[in-house]
Design a protein that fits this description.
365 residues, Purple Acid Phosphatase, chain A, domain 2, 9-stranded mixed β-sheet, 27% strand
């Protein structure tokens, strides 16, 4: 149930040791949304919403600042400034999204005031979020969402391209940043803070998501850095049930560790970039929705739905308001997307097996 509305369906699954009913959580790519669409501007919305109806919780990373009275001057050039009015949150809620992270390199696009305005708008919309806050304690704290099937938590953090002043401190709003030292190792204090938050969430929650928005990419940003793979395993050891990655516009592979899904790069769910068509490879306009179901015996099951986004607005190249909205992939597109995901996942220990309606993540054979 999201925001008091019962949700019923998605194709990815996980299991619940403390409860008797399955708990289903849908994990989506990042939402770079700058325009709230009319029904005509998002023709794929009904099918997406129907597919997500069975999930108890639907989760994404909000890569947009909500404009408000405290917004500061832009901290980046306008072409890559991601900002919108609070009405975009209603668009996210229309497909069942109720759980967010706001830890990313765009959270600070309108300065500290933009972070505060975004958090206020999220709360006013009745959504739960983690990953940024009025100070480092709030930014690093887990967010919780209660559902009839169980309690879900998320801990959000970001690495790379966080602007100077964008990290939360004891006295400053900002994001929960996981920094890397000059030698490539992780900042010990950041690492400890994040793992402590996961342990805290795990002690009182049925399913914990660790969400990492990473911009410290490999030269080929379809590949997952070895240091990120190692930290994902540490998150599982600390108590997370699902590791979800965002940041790269290209979907990345998936793996399993101790039976827990490592969804290293979910790519985009909504992609309203203002860059001209052709600025990103075709794969940036494809992704998967992962439904993780936690069964009563503790078993986790992950199923996948392939989606595509329109690179060109419905009214042409200048129609940004209808650009980048998802729809379910047609059968041939679905097969190609899942085949690519399978090829990327095998080196990570995962395998994507085709099903009648999508795909299923399992250990590589």
């Amino acid at each position: 149930m999201i925001g008091g509305v019962a949700l019923t369906g998605l194709t990815a699954c996980a299991s619940l040791p403390r409860g008797s009913a399955p708990l289903k959580v849908a994990l989506l790519g990042q939402a770079l949304i700058e325009h709230a669409p009319s029904p005509e501007q998002w023709p794929g919305r009904p099918a997406i919403a129907a597919r997500l109806t069975g999930a108890d919780a639907v989760f994404t990373n909000l890569e947009t600042v909500i404009r408000g009275s405290r917004a500061g001057a832009p901290t980046r050039e306008l072409l890559t400034l991601h900002a919108a009015g609070p009405e975009i949150l209603e668009a996210l809620k229309s497909v069942g999204i109720g759980l967010l992270t706001t830890a990313n390199n765009h959270a600070f696009d309108l300065g500290s005031g933009g972070i505060l305005d975004t958090l206020a708008a999220i709360r006013a919309a009745g959504l739960s979020s983690a990953g940024s806050g009025v100070d480092i304690a709030e930014a690093s704290a887990p967010a919780f969402l209660a559902t009839p099937a169980g309690r879900v938590a998320v801990v959000g953090f970001a690495t790379g391209k966080v602007r100077e002043g964008g990290m939360a401190t004891e006295a400053r709003p900002g994001v929960n940043e996981l920094r890397r030292n000059a030698d490539g190792t992780l900042h010990a204090g950041d690492e400890a803070r994040i793992l402590d938050a996961i342990r805290q969430a795990s002690a009182s929650t049925d399913l914990v998501i660790a969400c990492h928005h990473n911009h410290d990419w490999e030269p080929d940003n379809a590949l997952v850095p070895a240091w990120q793979q190692a930290f994902a395993r540490r998150c599982v050891d600390a108590g997370c049930d699902v590791f979800a990655g965002h940041g790269s516009p290209l979907p990345q592979g998936m793996g399993l560790y101790r039976g827990k899904p490592l969804l290293y790069g979910l790519g985009n769910f909504i992609f309203q970039t203002e860059k001209v068509a052709g600025s990103y490879p075709p794969e940036a306009w494809t992704s998967v929705m992962a439904c993780v179901t936690r069964h009563a015996d503790g078993r986790l099951e992950t199923r996948l739905d392939a989606i595509t986004m329109n690179e060109i607005g419905l009214g042409g190249h200048d129609d940004l308001a209808s650009r980048g909205f998802p729809g379910l992939a047609a059968s041939l597109e679905m097969a190609a997307i899942l085949d690519r995901m399978d090829r990327l996942s095998r080196p990570l220990g995962g395998q994507i097996v085709a099903t009648a309606s999508g795909g299923r993540l399992q250990a590589a054979t």
